[in-house]
Every structure is written in C-alpha cells, then in structure tokens.
Amino acid sequence: MKPTRKLFLIWLCLMAGFKLHAQNPAPTLLVTVLDEQRQPVANATVELHKAANKALVKAAISNEKGQAEFYAIAQGPYYATVVAVGFGNKNSATFQLPGTQTLTVNLSTSTKNLQEVTITSRKPFVQRSQGKTVVNVDAAVTNAGTTVLEVLEKSPGVMVDKNGGISLQGKPSVLVMIDDKPTYLSGSELNNLLSSMNSSQVNQIELITSPSAKYDANGNAGIINIKTKKNKQEGFNGNIAINLGQGKYLKSNNSLLLNLRSGKVNTFVNYSYGYYKGYTSIYAYRQYFDDQGTVTSALDQPSYLKSTNSPHLLKTGVDFFASDRTTIGLTLTGNLVSRTGISTAVATWMSKQVTDSAISTIGTSDFGLKNGAVNVYARHNISKTQDIGFDVDYLGYSIDNNQFFNNIRTGSVAYNQGSRGSIPSKLHIFSAKADYVLQLGKNAKLEAGAKSSNISTDNQANYELLRNGNWEADLNKSNHFKYQENINSVYSSLEHKVGRLSYQLGLRYENTHYVADQLGNAIKTGSRFTKTYQDFFPSGYLTYQADSSNAFTLTTGRRIDRPPYQKLNPFVFIINKYTYQRGNPFFLPQYTWNFELSHSYKNLLTTAVSYSGIKNYFSQLFLAEGDDILVYTDGNVGQMHNLGVAVTLQVSPFNWWSLTAQSNFNYKKLSGYQQVNYQSSVKQLHNSMNNQFRISKTLNAELSGFYTTKARNDLQELLSPTGQVSAGLAKTLFKGNGTLRLTARDIFHTQSMEGLTDFPGANEYFILWRDTQVLNVGFSYRFGKPLKATKRSAGGASDEINRAGT
Q1: How far apart, in whole angstroms, are the C-alpha atoms of residue 801 and residue 176?
Q2: pLDDT on residue 765
Q3: Which distant-in-sequence residues (6+ apart) come within 8 Å of 32 by Cβ?
Q4: What span, in angstroms and rounded, lies between the C-alpha atoms of 121 and 655?
C-alpha cells in the first residue's frame, strides 16, 4: 500500500473514533434567547450591563441554539439587553453574580417592529463571519437593474479583468458556485452566464476565502457562492421586479419569484428575463522588435463590437417534508443565453512609421448557451446529535459559437478574404455526494462525507475559408477534442470550542483520472493522453477570543486548481486576423498553500495579513507565430508568491449613515519560463467603499465605488489603474411592500481596462471600454407574507461547473 493511502486510512480511523474527554470550563453566565414559539434565536446581540450605572460590561452573539456565553464576570448586580432583527428589544430583570448561572430571555415580535424592520433593522451591505464575507445584494441601492457580474465588480476584495477572470483578495482562480453548486464554467462562458443573471434574483453573495474540507478543493483564492432567493413561508407569496436602464444602448432585466407552501409540500418558481444591448471598444497597438531592440514594424488595431444579449433563467422545485426528521426535494434549473454581435476593425501595418497596408474586417458572432440541471436531495435527522444528507446532480451544457470574418486589404497586395467557424461544445456532468454531521457535546462537531463526479466534454472546431467564391474546409484550424474526467473524494473535519479557543481541523482526499482524445483529420494526426493523480488537502483555523471585543484567527489550507475543460482543447479560436486563442492539452493543475492571520475588533474593524505560495502557476501566455500572428494561450509558468494585507471597516458615524470600506494590498512576484526566463512583480492596491444613507423613513440613498492601482494576474501582462463611482436613491411605497429605485452606475465613465502585454520580440498596448455608464430606474413589489430565507439543498456538484468554459 502506498504511504499516502496509509496516512489517509489512519486519518479516517482517528477521526471516526475520536471522542472528547476534556471538560470545558463552565461559563459564568449562560443566556438563552427564545422567540414566541420557544424556538432559539441565533445571531442575537446580548449585552451585559451593570445595574448600578447601566455601563456595558461585555457583549456576545447567540449561537444556533440561541445561547450566548459570558466568562470571568466580576460579582455584582447586572441586567441583560437582547437585540435581534425582527424582534423588539428586551431587557431582563436585574440579577446577581455569582448566584445566577442561566438566564432565559423571551423575545416577541410586534406590529410596530414588523412595520419598521425595513427601516431600522435593514441588513448591512456586508457582514463577516468565520472564514467568509457575506454581501447582502438588496441592501445596496445601486444594485437595482444590475447583473450579478456587475455586483461582483464592486464587492469587497473582488476584481474582474478584461477576459472575465475573477480575482478574490488579489488572487485569481476562484471557484464560482450558485446555491452551493459549481457553475462548471470559466472565462468567457462564465462571464456570459454571470452577465446574464439578474441581481434581483440573488439574496446573498458569499466570499469564502478559507473554505473547510467539506468544500471541493478547487479554487486557490477561495469560493464565491451566489445564493438565489427562495423561501418556505407558509401560504402563497412572491416578488416581482422590473428594471429599465439606458447607457449608450438600452438594457432591461426583470424577475418573478413565486412560492407556495401548503402542509408538507413547498413549491417555488424563480424566473428572469433580460435584454442587454452594449458595446466593447478596444484599441491595441502592437510593436515588433529586432535583436537590438529597434522597432521594425507596428500594428495599429482599433475595433468596435456591438452586441445584444437576451437571457432566460428559470429555477423551480418542490420540497416534501415527509416527517419532522426527513425532507426530500427536487430542483430543476434551466438557462438560455443568446448573444449576437457585429464587429468592425481596421488593422494598419506600419514600417518606420509609414503605412504599409491596411486591412478592414467585418465580423459577426452568434453565441448560444443552453443549460439544464436536475438535483435530487434528501435530508434526515437521525437523532438530536446526528444528521445525514444525500445529493444527486445531473447537468448538461450545450454551447454554440459561430463566427464569420470578412477581411479586405488595401495597398500593393489587395485581396478580399472570408473565414467562418462553427465551434460547438457539449458537456455532461454527473455528481453524487453524502454528508454526515455528528454533534459531540455542546461545543464540538464532527463532519464527514464522500463525493464522486464524472464529466465528459465533446468539442469541435470547424473552420472554412472562402476561395474563388467557394467555401473550403480549413483543416489547419479545424479539430475535434473529447475529454472525460472522474474525481472521487472523501473528507472529515472536526470543529471544537474550548473556553476562549475554537478550532477546526479538516482533511480532504481527492483522486482524479482523465482521458483526452484529440481526433485527427486529413492533414493532422490524432493523439490520446491519460493521467491519474491523487492529493491530500488539509485545512483548518484557530481562533482566540481575547475578550468581548477582540478576536485573533489563524487559517491555513492547501488547494488545487485543475485546468478548465475548454482550455485543454488544442484547437484555435479566432479573435481577429492577427490574433488567435488556442488551448493547451498539456496544461497541469496548480497547487496553493494559503496562510492568513486576522484580527477583528467587535464588528467594526478587521485586519488580516496573508501569504499564498502557488506551484505550477496558471498564467495567460502570449506567443508570436510567424511574422504577424499573436497567439493567446494558457499554461503553467512556474511559481507565484503573494503577500497580502487587508483592512475592512464597518461603522455608523451617525444613525443615518452606514459605511463599509475595504482596502487590499498585494505584493505579487511571478517567475517562469516562456521562451525566455521571466521575472515580474507588482504592488497593487484595491479599494472599495459603500455608503448607505437614511434620508427619511421611506427614502434611502447610496454612494459607492472602487479603485484599483496597477495590477498583475499574468506573467506577461501589466494592468493600469481603473475604478468607478455609482449612486442611487430608493423610495419605499405601499406600506413597505414596494420599492422604487433610481441609480447611476459608473457616473464618470472611468471603468476602462488598460494595460501592456510583453512577449518575446514584441509588446502590445491595449485599452478596452464597455457600456458601463448606465442610468437605471427600477420597481419591485412584494406580495403575500414577507420573504424569509431558508436553507435548501444546493446540490453536490461543487467543482466541475467552474471548469467548463474557455
């Protein structure tokens, strides 16, 4: 037996047989918070005051059992104040310490509190908990009428580059999930999906920088989990939202959420439709050099793309509460994205600043994405201390990408050429998992589980050239690529609290096997390659609660990023006559060790210092092919070291003003080989700020924005500073059930993407603009009972979706 397998079996045995014998020190006072039905109230703020002068001594937050613990409290008379969202504030009777060891506070709702909850108890834009930051989408006025991608762009610590790549806390390679299930897409396909999702469908976005062992190990920067709206409130209720925006072109997104619960059955429907017309304007200037560094020629390339996107997204399902202990459910999801575009470009060749020739290109593109997903789940409460859950998922993607280019050259050698391509992709994903939770006493929890997934993709690239009025197959660019992958994994983790210390230790094991076939054609020889590898991924955290205000946390973990499926395809995707994109079948996984030490002061200030070391670092590569072709590809270039410092501030200077601000500083050093040895580094700072203002009981305002200094995610590309400012007003109507919003996004139209690409024998300056300066008006109306977010199964597919794109 291999040593790694022996270690793994030993770990499972130890974790399965572990029992806690240590006795935790008893708290001086245990406060239990209950609602009107005598059910525990979690996340309630419990303040302990001196009875003599009402001075605040300590504060604590109630756990899922409604319990808040206080340690080492001096003797004397006290009283407790309890504050919770949706409930009236409650003061306890005066009690004496020592003497009183337990205290129960019963909260009650009132008509007045329910009417005011949207005013005085609004969720903050950002909330923090162990290992993650939660963005409450509806809490930001300027999120009205936006897409999910646009919400991500201004979320704390999130950056989106010109290719749709998403970074978290300055680190790329993020696992993007929707309702705890991976999207199985990346790059342009993921960008198309997120830019087609209406933000009004989303309840929260979780930014998880330190995932536990129960999550798939993919994503070196962590996980972005997009949680859509749903509820299980008794009776019939729903929400409708209509938004109309005007930038250079018209945009609209609309959504409808319906829910019906009767007895043991709960059903829901979540549907959205959007219409987005926009543009992308790119200017690129490429220079070629000789061995002495002298410019020999230059290529001037302005281009303009106008596109129209009409997405439909539908999610529906049913939950059946078979008993008090057992719930089973079915969820169906469907996405239909259709994007068409027309582009114009002029490529001018110059030698010694003299125009040599010019080529005008007119192009059309037709992108279509169809996705259907089925999730079947079951949850069973074995006992008061044991729970088990099962998920089975099937997903299918059908992606069509059709291109046409007409190139007209002027100058000494004139011509009129045509090129077209059909690039269809099919993906089939099956995933099954089981999770088990065992509560060990009051302060410890053991989790374990297993998962298996199987992914198959079938990708074709069929190119043709127009010669003498006839279309002929272009076999040099055409290809057919098939890929099949199986990942099996098991995990176990232990979470424990001992006095002021709490910790979690977890270990995940993943075994990966894949087979890839590159089918040949009349002029290309086919090839086949296969690989099997397995790895352990430890993770954990240690938190010390110094006092009621200060806590210190150390987190660490090892993670993996497997290449996106489409980026393994070796065939060509044409960007323009002189720029191609090509996959890399020899792309290897990258591995990352993450370390972070953080300090939090109450809910006001959080600071963190982090380090990430990445082996076989993923980077976009730029290759010169022939005398005039630039090829974009991806590969493993070497190593990256990333040192980060993050500061987050959440404060209310006045009762009408709430401020959330975050700054992330990263020092990145990259090294690798791409025809020559490369060394590159950057010091980058990303700042984001969100201000929420309460002007009156029914009128709120927002001013938000972000700014990023020079940045680098790739070995050969340096990005210039960018940022934006947005503002908005929200007016509540119809006794709080309706909301009218007016927002302005990227007011000064500063959100450009600019940079310099360096590759052997040449470099390229570029700047890209999109239709980001938008004025939006939106209206939403809630009917039936108030929406109440509850936990549903989100499925077991947790890594594969994120890798399905190019």
Answers
A1: 8
A2: 94
A3: 40, 62, 65, 66, 67, 68, 102, 103, 104, 105
A4: 12
pTM above 0.85, yes or no: no
Is the CB of residue 337 less than 8 Å from the CB of residue 368? yes
In angstroms, rounded to a whole number, what is the distance separating the alpha carbons of residues 700 and 537?
46
Phi, psi of 130 (to 5 degrees): -55, 115
Nearest-angstrom CA–CA distance, 520 and 243? 49
**Segments of 695-721 assigned E as strands:** 699-708, 711-714, 717-719
Helices (H) and strands (E) in the chain, counts: 4, 49
H or E segment to which residue 358 belongs: strand 354-383
Q: What is the pLDDT of residue 466?
A: 87
The C-alpha atoms of residue 164 and residue 218 are separated, in whole angstroms, by 18
d(CA 172, CA 588): 16
Q: What is the mean pLDDT, run by run of 10 residues, along the chain of 806 residues?
A: 45 42 58 82 83 77 81 83 81 86 80 38 66 79 76 78 72 79 68 74 82 84 81 75 94 90 88 93 90 86 93 92 90 92 90 77 91 93 91 93 86 79 91 94 92 92 86 87 94 93 95 89 83 94 91 94 77 73 82 94 90 87 71 81 93 90 92 69 92 92 93 84 94 89 94 87 90 93 62 50 47
Condensed to tens digits (0 to 9), the pLDDT of residues 97-148 reads 888 888 889 888 644 433 333 334 456 777 777 667 888 887 777 777 677 8
Tally of CB atoms within 10 A around 515 = 15
The per-residue pLDDT for 164 is: 64
Q: How far apart are CA 487 and CA 513, in angstroms?
A: 7
Nearest-CA neighbor of 755 among 650, 701, 680?
Answer: 680
Number of neighbours of residue 486 by Cβ within 10 angstroms: 16
The answer to whether 621 touches 634, Cβ cutoff 8 Å, is yes
Structural tokens at position 392: 């089975």
How many Å apart are CA 222 and CA 173, to the nearest integer? 8
The letter for the amino acid at 46 is V
382 near 388, Cβ under 8 Å?
Answer: yes
Residues 191 and 199: their CA atoms lie apart, in Å, by 14
Per-residue model confidence (pLDDT) at position 186: 67
Q: What span, in angstroms and rounded, lies between the C-alpha atoms of 755 and 708?
A: 13
What's phi and psi for 307, nearest 5 deg? -130, 155
What lies within 8 Å, CB to CB, of 449 at 6+ separation is: 214, 433, 434, 435, 436, 490, 491, 492
* CA trace torsion 165, 635, 341, 333 (10° rounding): -60
Residue 397 CA to residue 193 CA, distance in Å, equals 12
Q: Scan for tokens 């997120």, then name that residue.
A: 194
Q: Between vectors from CA 490 to CA 486 and to CA 494, what angle results, nearest 5°?
A: 155
Q: What is the pLDDT of residue 99?
A: 80
Given this model, what pLDDT does residue 225 score? 86
Q: Identify the three-state secondary structure at position 123.
A: coil
Query: In one letter, which amino acid is 476?
Result: N
State whether residue 5 is helix, strand or coil. helix
194: left (phi over 0), alpha (psi -120 to 50) or beta: alpha
DSSP three-state, residue 715: coil
Of 349, 280, 347, which Cα lies nearest the Cα of 308? 280
In this predicted model, what pLDDT tens digit does every residue of 294-343 receive, in sequence order? 888 888 999 999 999 999 999 999 999 898 889 999 999 999 999 999 99
Q: Taking phi first (over 0 means left), then psi (-120 to 50 degrees means alpha), and beta for anything else, what does residue 609 get?
A: beta
